[in-house]
Specification:
Distance between the termini: 40 Å
Largest sheet: 7 strands, mixed
Strand content: over 45%
Mean pLDDT: 94
Number of strands: 11
Helix content: under 10%
Number of helices: 0
Structural class: mainly beta
Amino acid sequence: QVQLVESGGGLVQAGGSLRVSCVASGSIFSGDIMGWYRQAPGKQRELVATVIGRGTTNYADSVKGRFTISRDSAKNTVYLQMNSLKPEDTAVYSCNLVRGSLRYWGQGTQVTVSS
């Protein structure tokens, strides 16, 4: 019953920055776990970052120091700020929400990094 819609993807040169957003159809509660995944062509989907509870964050080693996940509960939105982008970051980025035993997914937004 929760719907997630991503936006903000696009084409950016290597070394550039981009911020993708995910808006939920309803309120994001403090107990929710929000995350960003990505899937590149021919690759399995991988977890990029999560924000847990009121602010505990975790990142994949490949993006540590470059990406930042954040949430704005008032706007029912989670963000992924991506800096120092590399061509290998090219992928479809999807957000998800975990609420108890339930798991919701967005449709994804394409991020392409040119060399």
